[in-house]
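Researcher: Next sequence.
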Amino acid sequence: MSTDTEVLSSAEERMKKAIVNLNGQFQTIRTGRANPSILDRVTVEYYGSETPLKSLANISVPDGRSLMITPFDKTVVKDVETAIHKSGLGLTPNSDGTVIRISIPVLTEERRKDLTKQVKKFGEEARVSVRNIRRDGADELKKMKSAQVSEDEIKRLEESLQKLTDKYVKEIDKNVSDKEHEVMEV
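Model: Next structure:
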């Protein structure tokens, strides 16, 4: 059976991972600036299997409004273009046969609002995840009641668990707010 401090440290570790996951999801949301991480979810059909684009090419940012993709294998240029079109990111790749350039268009007000909704959705999923971690931790603490841990000690640990939860929910709210601001700035 876990000790009381193991329950809290395990819960905190899992909550940190929820924040890391949320920030990773935010990286894939396109703002008006060029950022190679918006292509992280793009996979390319390569020798019969779906391969992440970043494994097949070097992605650079020549200026604030464009991306340049240089495939390691020049035979996949067309496949990379097709994958970017199908990705649903609203990007149009242009190729010269060896290098693919993508101009990042300025976002419309409507698209900014859609992205803000997506940011809020990711934030809510992260909050739910943190609350589920709190619930799991509370369940483990309740199992300890039957052991040699006093009810007062369990109560104190539950309060500590709630403080951890509040801390990480507050951090999620701040990250969501920051990302919304980044998406909405013109």
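Model: The first helix runs from residue 4 to 27. The helical segments are 4-27, 53-56, 77-86, 109-144, 151-184.
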